[in-house]
Structure formats: structure tokens, C-alpha cells
Amino acid sequence: MRTKRIKGIKFGLLSPTEIRRMSAAKIITADTYGEDGFPIEMGLVNQRIGVIDPGLRCKTCGGRMGECPGHFGHIELAAPVIHVGYAKLIYRMLSATCRKCGRVLLEEKEKKRFLAEIERQKEKQADVGDVVKQVFKEAVKNAVCMYCGEHQKVIKYDKPTTYIEIDEEEKKRRLMPTDVRERLERIPDEDIALFGMDPKSARPEWMVLTVLPVPPVTARPSITLESGQRSEDDLTHKLVDIIRINQRFMENRDAGAPQLIIEDLWELLQYHVSTYFNNEIPGLPPARHRSGRPLKTMEQRLKGKEGRFRGSLSGKRVNFSARTVISPDPDIDIDEVGVPEEIAKELTITVNVTERNLESMRETVRRGKRHPGANYVRRADGKKVKITEINYGMLADELDIGWKVERHLRDGDIVLFNRQPSLHRVSIMAHRVRVMPGKTFRLNPTVCPPYNADYDGDEMNLHVLQTEEARAEARILMAVERNIISPRFGRPIIGGIHDYITGLFLLTWGEKKFEREEVLALLRKIDIDDLGKPAEAPYWTGKQIFSMILPKGLNLQFRGRINDVIIREGELISGVIDEAAIGSFKGIIIDRIFRQYGEKAAKKFINDASRLAINYILHAGFSFGISDEDIPKEGEEQIREEAVREAEHKVEELIRAYEAEELEALPGRTLEETLELLIMQELGRARDEAGDIAERYLGIENAAVLMAKSGARGSMLNLTQMAACVGQQSVRGERIRRGYQGRTLPHFKSGDLSADAHGFVRASFKDGLSPTEYFFHAVGGREALVDTAVRTSQSGYFQRRLINALQDLEVKNDGTVRETRDTIVQFKYGEDSVDPSKGEYGKVVDIDEIIREATGAEVGA
Amino acid sequence: MRRVLTAEEKEEVAEELVRAGIEEEIVEQIKEEFIPAELTIEFDELLGMQIEEEYARDIMMMQGRGEEGEVKLGDIELKVNKSKLPERIKGELRKKLRAVRNKLSRRKLDEILNKVVERYEKAKVEPREAVGIVAAQSIGEPGTQMTLRTFHYAGVGAIYITLGLPRIIEIVDARKKPSTPAMKIKLEGEYAADRNKAEELTMEIEETYIRDLGNVEASTEDMSVWVSLKERELKRRHIEREEVEEKLKSIGAGGLVEATEDGKLRIQVQNKFYHELLRLEEKVSNTLVKGIEGIKRAIVRKDADGEYMLYTEGSALKKVMRIEGVDFSRTTTNNIAEIADVLGIEAARNAIIEEMMGTLEEQGLDVDARHVMLIADAMTMDGEVKQIGRHGLAGGKASVLSRAAFEVTVDNLLEAAIHGETDELKGVTENVIVGQPIKLGTGAIELVAR
Predict the structure, then answer these.
(1) Pairing mode, strands B257-259 and B208-209
(2) Torsion angle, CA of A252/A254/A257/A260, rounded to 10 degrees?
(3) By residue range, what is the domain housing residue B409?
(4) How near does any CA of chain A get to the CA of B162, in Å?
(5) Between B136, B382, B425, which is nearest A806 by CB?
(6) How many domains is chain A partitioned into structurally?
(7) Taking CB atoms and an 8 Å limit, are A801 and B157 in contact across chains?
(8) Are residues B115 and B220 in the same domain?
(9) Which residue of B has its CA nearest to A786?
């Protein structure tokens, strides 16, 4: 069966006839509910325009609450009013058409030209706005009608809805909506096209309302407060206002009230109808609720982030979803997600009972609320029955083919897992469920990078797929192992982080030897049957153990962070495993396995590697403490003397030279700028030097150095700041200058240019900062915080725009990239039709590798 | 190596040469000179172009050699050219195969080629892939990791340039003028080799106003503007005193220009009103004496190839291109609108790619060029640089609902009603709104069981 599709939605203006035709009831009373608590006939909450009360039936379609979608009603306006949204356009039309015969003030020839241009734009499905603008501009220029000879008068538009006609003698006459409507009526259909309008869907006079459609009550439901009092929707309030004034207007007119009063009431009616459409019209006081809160009318309902379009239509709320805190579990597979039993019992999957699963489904129903059980059954006749403590046995016996069972989530079910902000497609991936005790979702740490997740309290969402198609698609396209390679840069985005890298680094670094028992302990969570021969009997080496998790026959050679890594026939021959080998974002081994052996092998490798890494780091032990930042006395001395003091001397020298006017300005810089630049440079160098000295005293055995070098976490800069010298603090790339006149803090002399007066922190974090240093550090730190805050909002909007502009582009069957109008954007995607995520480690084809395989020759980078 | 070929053989070879992508002109030459006459072939005298000559000769001799035969340059050329690979890969392959030529046999060559083609075919995009969304995400996602700061560039004391997220936003906004316009000017011949020559050029380019050359003062005493030029500045910028005088006369400040003995210039105001005097002062100090308007500063730097080049603050591509010593084919600006204006839309498209990739790289972010290309192509697809946003791509979309969901919701709906527009529900947002499957990727394919 094919599902029906909406082919298109046509937009147009409603004509008065159309409004009356689609109306189910004429509304004449402003009252809503009567004394008896039932909706009043002919009232705004009319039983013929929809029901919102349980138990009542719609008098138009007979549907109950929830079944009847509601029907429009209408109000006959006592006098026409301008539609605010079109006030400006009406003004333009009045100015561009003859006041007598209604024709557009252009020569036939010109009309033809413009019409042809409009036609052309429409054909291209492009905007006609510019042409229409031209039409208006040209037409106003003509003061005499070329068709009837009428002399035109200047029309002035007084925002928001008033038009005034001024004749040559400067005499003003207000055009009432009735006049406006008459004039618009006179514009012939063929001239309307000049305004880019389609006379069938929008006649200009329809922009002046004579009948007002009343939206169904279902679109403006009243809410019952705790006190039992009814509180009507803002739209209903506004409609009440309109009806009241409308009635007063009619009464007054029938009673023959003076023109002045009539005009006042007309104005009031206009105000209410205007604010009914939009309550934020400039120049009009917004209509307010009794409490003083401005009413939320039509436009306010539609626009903005929480409005109908962005809030309700583009983003929808869903069932079958769960959200909780995430926590790590290195023992589950990368494509699994640990789901708390509590959640698994709430989320269900509907299973059709067939011949083959009848027995197992009976068993499921019989378990009832106990975990791998079910919550509801749906009988063959469609009746839904809740499984309770009382009826589960009966339902299980009754269960038959054709029934449906809403069973609990079980191990192995496919679900979608997501973390906001969903910035790229790997922010939502399909995982296999693993039901567990506890209250958090469990996630393998190697999958953190694509989600950009950590475990400091992050929460994630889970969605249970409800159809077979959805599950198949998720399994094929969205599974974690399918998304190991990032489409952004064509390299793995899933891979080892932190301790995984440290673990494997330690294991494969140097010549580590292990006895059989140790090897078995390390590999106990990994499926390996054959340990092979120990390289240095009776010992296995660390590299050998790592090689056991590599696929057979893997050949790979690359430059690691520390040294060159060579893998031959699945054996790590030399080199140490680091971030470049198995890390997320880099992970060249993962990349190669993914391409050569497929996603299953890559998944297995990441699983094995992480388990091996964790086991080894547990086995070997790894820690970092404040004493690891200790530098021997002579080192400290060296840092102080050679690096810091030296630089400070040089800075003093620079300042002296500057004050003595001996300093030469750099081209295009003032003397002051030059001085600042040179000082910054000098102090920057001081920190680097301090870092270098510290590094000399802290060998790779140092945990922080090891982590930095292997790429597990942190950088040498972090260590430098902890152990040696924090360095210059800056705001906007300059030394800190703000504060008092001529100085940053009262601790310094005015005009002091020295290093410490402008934010150079010579202490290390371990030593502790002096009060002034602490202050400067806070100044620099604040900038970073502000930067992050501003950036998130900016980049969020940037991405929204990008997505909106590009979302419809797709590669067609002929290899071109086109948008919805079939306009070609690219003849060949990316000039070579290559999918970035399908290339080879960021390249299209690894030619070096192919040549090496064929000839054994090295091409060299 | 020489060999006599028959007429048929030659015809065949000629055809092969054409197919191999060797310019027809050259092949024509070979044919004319040799095919009629059955002579010993000696290409050396005939072909001026060295590379083609070698290939041609190789190709001539390839006939009749076995699979294990030696691999000639011509073999590589012929086979690579014939393969259905994109140009970029062909180039790389050619280069790398030449490097290992002595280790190849003809069979090995075929083997390698087939493998490359096979792997290339495997790497191709799937039809119906939603490349637009992937591109948008690939640029947008790293946006959160970019800095907001302006950084400087090319060493100490150089020019400040907007980088990071603000720069990227500036590019997709298709601004008329970037917040920090700048140029990279490559030089020709001796200008590129000689630092002094290059320095001289900076003086040609840098805008120099009278105010830069000395003091400009308005004196109410004699109702005239006094210009006292600094000798040092004039010398540094290679400007003659007379030049300034000429310039002042040519702007016809309405006043008389005269040089006094003490080296000052005096310009009298015609109408002796105070405001006229001030206006004149303003006009005089802002008179351009030398250089190109808009180029605030130019500095000389050595590039990676050891050539001297100029970096400028401010941009004026059209004028800079005309200056002698400037290699305009390699000179660029970061002002994309200017490039579109001067060099055309294709150049603008390339500039967008260059600028975006450059900015991303500078931030240490790895983004595949294809994503950036798609954005650049989308922005330039109909001949003008369109911004990504309300006034460009997103605002010009065919779908009413999609536009309404983006920005200015109500205006779009009111407009649509007037024009009697129909939303054909072909894009993503529209179908999300009405709750239908999206016709992209898997959604574009239907399977109907009968």
C-alpha cells in the first residue's frame, strides 16, 4: 500500500463568500458559556464550531472531543475594516491605480512589458517583488489617468490603517474603508497581475474585511482553573471585543447616531480587528489582559522560536522517549547503551502476534509488569487492554494471532540515542539496548567524542523506534559502527580517549614482558583463543599482546606522535601506540581496519583495544599528583634565573630604550605598539623556555608528560603552567592595561610598564599565585568565559542559517547536486563525486599504499 | 632508439596519441611530417616541447611490447589519461607512478590502475545523499570550537585580520566589504627578488595624503591653509615637493597655491568665511598625493618560496593589478565582493573556498574541502554572490512554509497569499511541517510490494 502524500498547499486570500461558505455558524453573541455551564448558541464557544468539553458532541460533524477537528464560524462586520497586514500594500495600490476607473496608471505597452517580466520570474519560481516594486514606482508618477482622463490626487498613508486623499488645494479627505474597498473593487483582473497577484486566489478588495472568520474553539481552548472558573484563550477575548464593538456599531447606526460617534466606533472596530491579527503594531497600544499582560494574538502565535512554525511545526514532541544522566561503562560494547530497568519497563515496542511468536508473547504477557514483560495488549478488534496484576494470566491465555503486544524494551532492541546540541548527524546514533540496574544511561567512553559528551552530569535522550522500517533504517544507516568515520573530515571520530590511549601507550612502549598468567589476565575480556609463541620465551612482549587484537594480515606504516609505527601482517613490529594510532579524530589504525575489514571488525577492534587498555592500565597502575609537578632545586633555580629573570631584564631594557627614545618603531606601528609587541614576545619566550627547562627535569616517566606526549590528555603547556610558570595573561591579545589611570592596580606606580604590572604571572600553579598575579589571572580567565558565552549563541544562529540554506540540496541519480527547483548547484559533487566519509584517511584513494602493495616500492610523501 | 613504422602503424599511433590526450596540434605535426614518408623517426628535431616529445616517442615504441616489458613514461601517460579518474587523482597518480617507474612492469601498471579505479568507484557518493545538510553540519559544528578573536598574521608587527567564527560569518553573509580588508600581492621578476625594489613598490601602493607628509594648519590670521611638508617623509615616500604643489593646484581648492621661502605651502581661501577655511583645511589634508586609495599600509614579506611579496591593510584589487611589478595572476584580496566584481563569479567562488578553508585551517579545524565547495557553489549558483540567510539563499527558497519557518514568518505568509503561491512540498522543512516523509536519502526511494 502506498501512503497518500500532500502534493501542495496553495495560499490565497479568503473572499467574503468563501468565509461564509466555510462557516459552520454565524456568531452574534459575545458570551461564551451560559449559566448552566453549557456553551451558548450563536456564541463564541459554539457547539457547532467544535467541542472542547468532554462528553459533548459537535453539532456540525457529530464528533466528540478529540475527534472533531473544529469548524470555522464567522462574524458579519457592521462596517468594513482594513486588514493590518496589507495596509501598506493597499496604500501602494491606491496610489498606483486611477481613483475613478481603477486601472493601473501605466500605458498598455509598459503593462505588457512588466507582465512579461513577471511571467518570466514566475517561471523561474523566483521572487517577483522587484518587478512589482518597479510597477508601483512607475505608476505613481502618472498624475492623469491615460484611460479615463481623471486627475489623480495624492494619497497619504497614516500608519497603521488610515488613508488620506489630498487634492491640489491641499484639502484633505479621509478615505474610509468603504471608499478603499470600492476603489480596489474597480481594479480589473488583468491589471491585478501587474502587482504579482493572482486574481483567482486574491482580489485586492478582499484585503478589506467585511466578514471575519472565527477560528474553531479547538484552536483557542479555554482552560478550567483549579477554582472551577473558566479562563478563556486570548483569541477568544479579542473576538469578544470585536463582537461587542460590532454590535454597538450596528445599534448606533440603526439608531441614527451622529457621524462623529459612528466614526469613533468604526475606529474602535478597526483597532480591535487590527490587534486581533497582530498585537505588536507600531503606533497602536497593545490590547491587554485584565492583569496588564499584552494579549497573544494571531501573529504572536505564529512567529518566533516558540511560535507555531518553529516551536510546534518544525519541532514536535514525541512519545516513546526517555532522558536521564549518562555514566561510563567500558565493559559494554561501543554500540550498546545501558538502559535502567525502570526505563525499559516504561518504553514499549509493539509486536504483532503471529504463529511463530505466539508462545513467547504469551510468556511475555504472563510476566506482566516484571521486566521482560509487557504493558498493554491490543486485541484483534483493536481494543487496548492494560495488563495488570489481576488480568495478566487471563490475557496470556487469551492471546491469539492478530493481537498486538506492547512489550518492554529488551536487550538487543535498536534505539536512537541523542545528546543536544545536535550539531551534526553523529549526535544521534542507533544503539543496542542493554537493560541494567541503576538509574543512568550507560555509555562506552569511546563514543563520547561524536556526542561531545562527558560524565559530569550530562543528560541524554533515548528514542524507541516503532516501525520495522525505522528499525531497519537505523540499523543500516545510524548504527554506531557505521558512523565511526566522520563525514566532516573522513577520519574516525570514534576512538580511544584519555586512559585508553595511556593504557595502550604504556603497554606498547619499550620492551615490556609478561608471563602467561599476566597475558591471560590482560586479555580476559577479549575473545582470543591462541596466544601464539612468546617472543622471548617464556615472556610475551607488550607489542605482541597488542598485536593479538589486530586483524590478521594488517599492513600499515605511519608516523606516530613519538616514533614511526610499523605493522606487518597483523604484528606490531615497532613503534608505540598513541593518539595518532587509536585516538578519536586521528586513529589511523581504526581508519584502516574500518576500510579494509569493514565496520564490524572496526567495532571489534575498538572494543578490544579499550578493554585491553583499561585492563593494562589497571594492571600497571597510573596516577598523577601534585608531587609529580616537583622540579629539583636546580631546575627551579634555572627557571627562575635563566628564563624568568632573564626575560624580565630584557623587558626592563626595552622599557629603558623606549623611555630614552632609542627604540625603533616597526614599520606601520607606533612606538608604543612596537614596545608592547616586543615585550609580549619576550615574555612569551620566557614561558616557553621555562617549560623547556621543566621538561628536561620531568622525563617521560612523569605521568603528565606521558599523557601530553601520547596525546591522551593535556599538553605540555598545561604542564608548564602547573610546574614552571603560568606566563603572560592577556585580554584581546594584549597585555592587561585596563584598571586605573596609568596603572592596572594601586599596587603599582602610575606609568609602570614592567612585566608584573601588566599581568605577567611568573609563579607556577603549584607554587601558587601572588595576590596581584591571581587578579590578573582572573582578568584573563574572564575573557575566556565571555568568549564562550558569546560564541555559543553566534554559532548556533550561524548553523541554523547554514542548515536552512542548504538542507534541500541532494545528489541526484545523474550525479549532479540540485535543490528543490531542480536548479543545478554542482555538476559533480565536490568536483569528483567522492563522498568525504568514504575516502581513505582523508584522501580519496591511498595511492601510496596501492603502489607499495603492487611493487613493494616506497613512493615517499 | 629508432624504428621504421608502416603507414598504417603511424596512423594507429597518431590515433593513440590523440586518445592519450596529447594535443592534437602536436599529433598533427607528427602526422604531417612523418606519416606520408616512410622514414626513420627522429622526434628530437621535431618537437619543441620536451615532455610531450618523450611521451610521444614512448607511445610510438609501445606497439608490440609484451606485458612484462619495460614501462615507459608514455605508458603511464596513456593509461592514466584513459582512466575514468578525476583530474586531481590523475595528477597524483602520474607523479607517483613516474617516481617508481623502474620497478613497474606493464602488467603491474595495469594492476595498480585497476585498483585505483576500483577504490575510487567505491568512494563515490551514493545518489540521493543529502549532501547539503552534511555540508552545513560540517561547517556549523566546528563553529562552536572557533575563537571570536581577531588575530594577527604573518609575524610580528604585521596586519590584523579578522579570523575565526566572525570571519566565517562574514564570508557567508556576503558582505560588500570585510571588516578587515587585506591583500596578498605577489610580485614579478626583479621586484620579487630584490627587497629594495619591493619596498619601493609599497610606497607606490600605500595611500599617502598630505596630512601624512606634514602639518596642515588653518590660519584665521590670513585666512589661508598652511602646509609644512616634512623633508624626511617626502624622501621616504619618494615624493617631490612640486608633486604636492601640482596636486594641490589640481584639486582646485578654489584658492591660490603659493610656495613661501621657508618651504611652506600656502593656500588662500577665496570666500573669506571661517567655515570655508575649515572645509579647505579638511580638503587639503585629505588630498591623495600618491598611492592607491584604500590601501592603508603595505609591508614586504618573504614567502615560502623565498620570493618577496606584499601584504596590505586595505584592498583595491583593480588598481593594484595595474601596477607595474605586480604579478596580478597570483595577487588576491580577502574581499570576495571585489573579486566577484573584478574577476567574475567563478573567481569569487574560488575565493570563498580559499578564504573559508584558510580560516578553518588557521583554527586547526579539519573540514573536507567538498563541504566548503558546496557552500561556495550554492552561494554563487546564479551568477551573483548571495548570502546564506534571509536576504539570500534561505529567503529565496521556493517553499513558503520553509521561508516562514526560518525568519519573518507572517510577512512571508501574507506575501504568499497575495501571490497565490503554491508550496509544492519538495524540501525538508515543508514536509516536516505537514508531517510527511522527506524526499531525501532513503525517503526518496519507494518500494512497493505487489
Answers:
(1) unpaired
(2) 70
(3) 400-444
(4) 13
(5) B136
(6) 6
(7) no
(8) no
(9) B148
